[in-house]
Amino acid sequence: MRIGTDDEAADKPLLAALRGQPVWPPPLWLMRQAGRYLPEYRAVRARVPDFIALCTTPELAAEVTLQPIRRYRFDAAILFSDILMLPWALGHGLAFREGEGPVLPPLRTAAEVERLDPERARGAIAPILETVRRVRDGLAAEGFARTALIGFAGAPFTVACYMVEGGGSKEFAATRTMAYTRPDLFAALMARLTDATIAYLTAQVEAGAETVMLFDSWAGVLSPQLFRRHAIAPARRIVAALRASFPRLPVIGFPRLAGTMLGEYAAGTGVDGVGVDTATELGQARRLVGAQVALQGNIDPLALLAGGAALADAADDALAAARAGRFVVNLGHGILPPTPPEHVAALVARVRAAA
Amino acid sequence: MRIGTDDEAADKPLLAALRGQPVWPPPLWLMRQAGRYLPEYRAVRARVPDFIALCTTPELAAEVTLQPIRRYRFDAAILFSDILMLPWALGHGLAFREGEGPVLPPLRTAAEVERLDPERARGAIAPILETVRRVRDGLAAEGFARTALIGFAGAPFTVACYMVEGGGSKEFAATRTMAYTRPDLFAALMARLTDATIAYLTAQVEAGAETVMLFDSWAGVLSPQLFRRHAIAPARRIVAALRASFPRLPVIGFPRLAGTMLGEYAAGTGVDGVGVDTATELGQARRLVGAQVALQGNIDPLALLAGGAALADAADDALAAARAGRFVVNLGHGILPPTPPEHVAALVARVRAAA
Fold first, then answer.
1. A181 has a pLDDT exceeding 90
2. Alpha carbon of residue A217 to chain centroid
């Protein structure tokens, strides 16, 4: 285990900001900063038959994780992987079909929940942990002393969405219907995923991740009652378990499209930072979560794609929020593949030049 | 023009609640209360070749508007129509394909904006206005003296979404990209739609609508900056124009998934009531909009589909909010077609029996 000492952390703007220390310019990284918008990513991607092979080949996964750091010297590298690698490791089927997104067997029975195998996962995640180690070493070897390494997992509800639905969906109606009409079955699935997420994130920190982020991309489809039960409660359990093992570990939660529930999420889970989606107004987000939690967001990925005045305005809004409290500049959702890399460079320059 | 007198309005719980008068039990109606979940609707639908024919045959559109009132004595009847009937009336193409949703020619040029024809719309909406008149007469003739008639339109941004995209979409990226990269073109489209919406809603009120609702179903995909420009500003102009003609007309705005922007929307537009989507916490919504605006929502349509304890819990949350301020019980989104009609009856009974 190699958790950074406080002296090391003080030199890493992301960790400092998450711990409430003043940092200027604000730390900056972008969701999906390693990805298809970069030609060097596409070159590596072409060397493997599919996306899962890329995630489970440590040499290549570490390489694509480091690529955007070399270009932009972001304040964070985030493990290149996918939130569905955890159900994959647990033995649930997973395939990524070109242009169609993930395809999984739709989970509908208690027997299928029972079959999710934590023992199997322990072995299956080995290459992912090896990627974490290689990235941590690579950051040091290439002189990125200020870049923190983020581990991550999908939050149990969002992972359950894909498992129950059998893939992506607009509103995840089958998943929410299961939560309403078969609450015991759904609770069993959520409990197993929550346990597995704790083990998975613990292993990532032991391998070298310096902070972790929990992506609840579909939390926004939940009513407040279900949000409390299936977004806040599992995240609280995950944060508490990680804190018990790593008292100084900063944790970021991203309940996307939580809207008015953002404050309850921050207070109820105990995270150090919350991801803020593009639709959320940053002043209201600050009012909801209070001064003691960092906000991370929320530039519109379409403004980054558009560039020019749209991007400058969006960046300036984020910088204004950063002047007012704990803040990490990021997008409100992942980079879109057609984004010109020079727009990313323009954003980085604007944030780094901020007075 | 037959706007209800204050004496009439006092007997209609919906209008009273929107005007801030105490009403108990709270008024109740449901988005898409006329629709496929009702066998009597499906019987009428089978008599016409397509959805547009149903919307433009006053006898049948009025019949399906009245059907749920006969079953459930809702506090509102809402004109049976579709938000895309306005671009259709303006001469933009529209077709509804079974299981695929609306299909429109994707609008991309200034010439296509110029071609939208308000003069044509004035004639094309005649059967819709005739439906309004027939429903108002039908409510009186059938003894529904307490049921108010709601007219409606899509908000300009949501209508623009379908026109630019050429149909439905998950995130309406083409529309938002146009707003960022061709702001003048998008502003011209929005201005023309806003003018047309004012004329359309004015005509509905003159035909007998007692309140109007503006559906901005996709407002939630906008960043705060774009939300102010394309959701709040057009709605403010529409509300102001309606107020100038009909000083006592209550107006409901529904910026779906507005989240933290709900307060700015209410204050900035001047609406009397705001629709609240299922994801929004009602206590936070009240705090955002203040005491002078009615909330309308926000039972999860999937809880209504599930019935039983899930529905009872959701109804009780809405009733608790109704005890705390101006409130209209509704769903957070439209009724889902597989919803059992007896679940709707159970919801109505629970709300009407509320102490």
1. yes
2. 9
Residue A1 lies in a domain: no
What is the interface size between A and B, counted as CB pairs within 8 Å? 115
pLDDT confidence band for A8 (50 / 70 / 90):
low
Mean of the pLDDT values across residues B103-125?
97
Q: Give SS3 for B318.
A: helix
Going by C-alpha positions, the residue among B282, B322, B273 that lies closest to residue B300 is B282
pTM value is 0.96
**Per-residue pLDDT tens digits for A145-176:** 999 999 999 999 999 999 999 999 988 999 99
CATH code, B41: 3.20.20.210
Q: Check CB contact under 8 Å for A176 and B302.
A: yes
Cβ contact A318:A329 at 8 Å: yes
User: Distance from B259 to chain A by nearest Cα, in Å?
Assistant: 4
Given B260, B264, B279, which is nearest A285 (Cβ)? B260
Whether B121 is in a domain gets the answer yes
Interface of chain B toward chain A, CB-CB under 8 angstroms: 170, 173, 176-177, 180-181, 220-227, 257-264, 278-282, 284-285, 288, 298, 300, 302-303, 305-306, 308, 310, 313-314, 317, 332, 336
Interface contact flag, B288 A259, Cβ < 8 Å: no
pLDDT at B4: 47
- Number of independent structural domains in chain B: 1
Q: A20: alpha, beta or left, given left = phi > 0 and alpha = psi -120 to 50?
A: left
Q: Please state, in angstroms and as integers, the Cα–Cα distance from residue A320 to each residue in A308, A325, A351, B161, B225, following that order.
A: 18, 9, 11, 30, 14
Nearest-CA neighbor of B224 among A262, A317, A279, A283? A279
Catalytic site includes residue A82: yes
CB contact under 8 Å between B281 and A260, yes or no, is: yes
Find the helix packing angle between A262-269 and A233-245, rounded to 10°: 40
Q: With respect to residue A331, please indicate whether it lies within any of the assigned structural domains.
A: yes
Q: What angle do CA A277, B314, B220 make, to 5 degrees?
A: 25
The reply to whether B1 falls in a domain is no
Q: Please indicate whether, in this complex, the C-beta atoms of A302 and B173 are within 8 angstroms of each other.
A: yes
What is the torsional sign of CA B283, B287, B291, B294?
A: negative
| Residues spanned by the domain of B339 | 6-352
